[in-house]
Structure formats: structure tokens, C-alpha cells
Design goal:
Rossmann fold; 2 domains; Arc Repressor Mutant, subunit A; 5-stranded parallel sheet; alpha/beta; elongated
Amino acid sequence: MATHRILVVEDEADILQLVTYNLAREGFEVVGAPSGEEGLDEARKGIYDLLLLDLMLPGINGLDVCRMLRREEATARLPIVMLTARGEDIDIVTGLELGADDYITKPFSPRVLTARIRAVLRRDKPSLEAAEQPFAIHEITIDPRRFHVVVAGQAVDLTATEFGVLHFLARRPGWVFTRTQIIEAVKGDDYPVTDRSVDVQIVGLRRKLGDAGVNIETVRGIGYRFKE
Ligand code: CA
């Protein structure tokens, strides 16, 4: 397996050192940048497989770094994992909507850090063609062409919106999506989003999925994810 190169943007020297040490020990090649400005310069080289990005940075903050990198061709698809402190839920939501792939809340264990990074590196955004193929996950079989869902051998009758939400989440197990991202994916970006409209869809879906409904997990303060 090729060595993955990870860029870590973090202004707190002790955290940068800890993260660098642990990732290097796991076989990753790690480069640290202590500010948003230096992180941007480094990321623009286009040589990294993943960016671990602290959100609270002096100068250009992490959300701005994320926004800028997503706009630039060389870094538009660079996987980004945000490092956040407790209570930064609004920033996490904003970051995910700007295109960050995942987040880790400080303090975190080295084991969680490497597991999350490996999970994001494994992720493959589904191609349009693959998105149309029937697939099964956790006893749920989803056929996108026929809008057909079977749970443990039983057909389940979903509304078009419920189907859209389930398909969107189940295609990307382990990914956390905000309510805005879910509704935009299902309804288009001109559809008015209220937290409640999304929550109502989720409640209906869980009920109809029965025991399999637990696979749709609530991520408090952020949104929803399908169990990995
Ligand atoms: Ca910081």
C-alpha cells in the first residue's frame, strides 16, 4: 500500500506534535503547518492525500481555509477532516456544508484519530452510474431505479422524499450530513429547508424501516448519518 501523505494545520504546538507523532507511527507521512496561511500554501502543492484542519486558527481560520481550497481546482477534492473543540457545532455544520468530509472533536484518542482518517481515505464518492445500481446494507436492499426498498425480506412502502433521504444516506455509510445537505440532495437547492421538515422525514423513515431504523443515526447538533 502506498504511503498516504497528510497535511496537519494546527496552531497549538503540543497538539500538532501529538498528532504528527501518532500518525507517523501508523505509517503516514505527515507535514505540519502552524497557521492557515502556511496550510493553504502547502495544500496548494497538490501532493497531499488528506488535510487535517484545525478550525480555530489565528489569521485565516479553518473554515476560510476549507472554503478557499474547495474553490481551487487542485484541492477541490482533497479530503478534509476538521479538528474542532467541544461546542463548535455551528462551525462543524458550516464546515460540512463547505465541503469538509468529516470532523474529530478534541480531545480525541490516537486510536480514534487514525480510525477516522483511514475511514475517510477509504471513501470513494459514488459515481453516477454506481448510484443507480441496487445495493444492500445492514439487511436493507435499495433499488434506485425502481424506488424499491426491502428490509429483511419485506418490501417497505416509502414516499419519494423518504426514499431519497434513505438512498442518499445509505450510499455513504459513516458520513455525517447536515439537514441542509440532505434536503438539497433530495429536493434540490431551491427547496426551503427547515430542521423540522428533515426531522419529520427521518421519523417517518425510521418507523417504516422498523428494527432497521436504528441504522439512521442522529448526530446531535450536526445532522444524520447512516451506520457504517
Ligand atoms: Ca487552534
